[in-house]
Amino acid sequence: MNLKVSSQKALIFATVFLYLVGFGVIIPILPLLGRELGGSATQVGWLMAVFSLMQFLFAPFWGQLSDRFGRRKILVGCLFAEAFTYLWFAFARDYWSLFFARALAGFFGASISTASAYISDITSPKERSKGMALIGVAFGLGFVIGPAIGGGVIHVAQQFSSEPLIGSTAAALFVGLLCLATFTFAYFKLPESLPPEKRSPSFKKSENRFLRIIKKFKLENLRSLLSLFLLAGLAMSAVESTLVFYVGQVYGWGADKVSYGFVYIGVIIILTQGYLVRKLVPVVGERRLLVMGLVLFSFGSLGIALADALPYLTIAITLFSVGNGFINPSILGSISLVSSELEQGENLGVAQSLASLGRILGPLLGGVLYDSVSVKSPFAASCLLSSVGLLIALMQFSQLPDSRGVKA
Fold this sequence. Notes:
Blueprint lengths: L2 H34 L4 H29 L1 H20 L4 H15 L3 H10 L5 H33 L5 H24 L19 H9 L2 H32 L3 H52 L3 H28 L6 H29 L4 H19 L13
Helix pairs in contact: 1-2, 1-5, 1-6, 1-7, 2-3, 2-4, 2-8, 2-12, 3-4, 3-5, 3-7, 5-6, 5-12, 6-7, 6-10, 6-11, 9-10, 9-11, 9-12, 9-13, 10-11, 10-13, 12-13
């Protein structure tokens, strides 16, 4: 592999990883802080959803902007702005102040789709899905390491002060400083990946974001892939949002065991995307790996619902995590393969918008099913959604891209 490309991959990985560590620090404390500041359960739900809602609305915007003006400017500028949203978050002392800080963080955080476009710029078509797996590894590491660091920061802060919100304030300040550090790193170390001659000649500011998504769904080469990405996001989020309640009610797990469980899921996804995907893509190709992922994901989510003992639940969660680790880089890599250089950022931004939509609707679906049907129904619904995705993938199998047939 070209030394310059390897260096750029390492730099973008480090940038995304540092950003996601900060995100991982905040997620565990967000519901508790929302309640402490007077939010109802419904309001806390919106507090959790608004970040993804903003990503859904603005990921295509940042993607298209990066197609026009370059990736580096967008990544660096948004990191700088996001640092101040976390400083606002740290000193929020009422629900609505916290809500708007979180909404702004989602607005600037929507630029994470630009990192996928950066990977596309610096990798050949044959290497693209393996490159996308790097983003998945960064996500997995961030969500494993972030909560652990956040817990440590909160613990240390509480040793120095008994002020009720000192822990969350310290954690948010830490994330703000981490964003500033990441901005500094990216500003001085991260090179531009999209040369001027490959940039889009114009930026259609007036185009409605929802119309842009609809327009992409009308394209035959993108329709199936975008549908699969949305279904996968819905299925994953429906499980994530209710698994904590389920293991607490059925297995009596407290917060500590739940944390260990999610660390386990993160480690499995890291190993899958960091090692297995990179080994399997050259052998089986994206479309076969996608089908394998959907099969494992479906069996895993159904297994969670059917498991009646912890060993069986562990097996089911392992299948679920490996399946998810196969699905995302396969779809993102495939979208990149069918996109022109001028539309890489926009198309991947639309895909990330759909993932955000899944993270908005999935928890709502899982919560309603958990409360109104049964504690096992969200996992059965996740199996159904992924099975629909599997059916789509099988029906469109011959039309899905495969990097093994693409020249480097």
